[in-house]
Amino acid sequence: MVYELYYWDGIQGRGEFVRLALEEAGADYIDITRQPGRGTGAMFDIMGSDSEPHIPFAPPFLKDGDFIIPHVANILLYLGPKLGLAPEDEGLRHVVNGLQLTVTDFVAEVHDTHHPIDMSLYYEDQKPEAKARSAAFIRDRIPKFLGYFERVLRQNPKGPNHLVGDALTYVDLSLFQVIEGMTYAFPKAMTKCKAEYPALLALHDAVAKRPNIARYLASRRRLAFNEEGIFRHYPELDSAG
After folding, report:
1. CA distance 82 to 77
2. What are the pLDDT digits (tens) for 157-206?
3. Is the pLDDT of residue 107 over 70?
4. Virtual CA dihedral for 56, 62, 67, 68, nearest 10 degrees?
5. Alpha helices in the chain (DSSP H)
6. Dist. CA 211–CA 150, nearest whole Å
């Protein structure tokens, strides 16, 4: 069965966390909204259905046959064991899921740096507030979150190569994407603070070198970061602190 991924066309966004897992595993999947003749209309058909018993609230969502799974962390909790990207131990699977939910929290805060007041407003309509929000984010929240993940890596009983256990899990891939996105959005801030998180940077570099991930990053399937997604680079919001 071929997995169907539904997310906005043209941006990495939250869908990228799911794509990375599918790409690493070499899974058969279709990025539905990027298919000629289907586009976002196919996604809205499901979300607006008056007969589908389990309609998703918003993308990303994944279809596995007739089964629809919404939300990034939920999708990865479902896919992890199927793709060999989750621990065999059930308890540790929940540890990985907890870490992924923390990634979700962080990504939401990243988004709020450029949309701190109203999602329906353009960034240009809330620039002063975004600048204040970003300054606080760089000062307080980046160290809070990245410092936490650094500690998790260093305190892993199996060693600092992975967040949980001694093998790659989907949350390792997600932390790679976080570092990638943050480096794009806040290059000055990240240049200053990267030295404080050597284990995270080592994990990022190791993931980038994995054969399937390296091929994906070099392919046209990997969309470029841009100012329509979650990780956006506005120079006026970036600071070395």
Report:
1. 10
2. 999 999 999 999 999 999 999 999 999 999 999 998 888 999 999 999 99
3. yes
4. 0
5. 15-25, 39-47, 72-83, 90-114, 127-136, 142-154, 170-185, 187-193, 198-208, 211-217
6. 24
Pull the structure tokens for residue 166.
Answer: 């001694």
Contact 207, 21 (CB under 8 A): no
Which has the closest alpha carbon to 177: 4, 29, 19, 27? 19
Token pair belonging to 8: 């906005």
CB 149: neighbour CB atoms within 10 A? 22
**Beta pairing partners, 12:** none
The owner of tokens 């740096």 is 113
Give the model confidence (pLDDT) of 108-123 as tens digits: 999 999 999 999 999 9
Unique residue bearing structure tokens 């506005």: 234
What pTM was computed for the model?
0.96
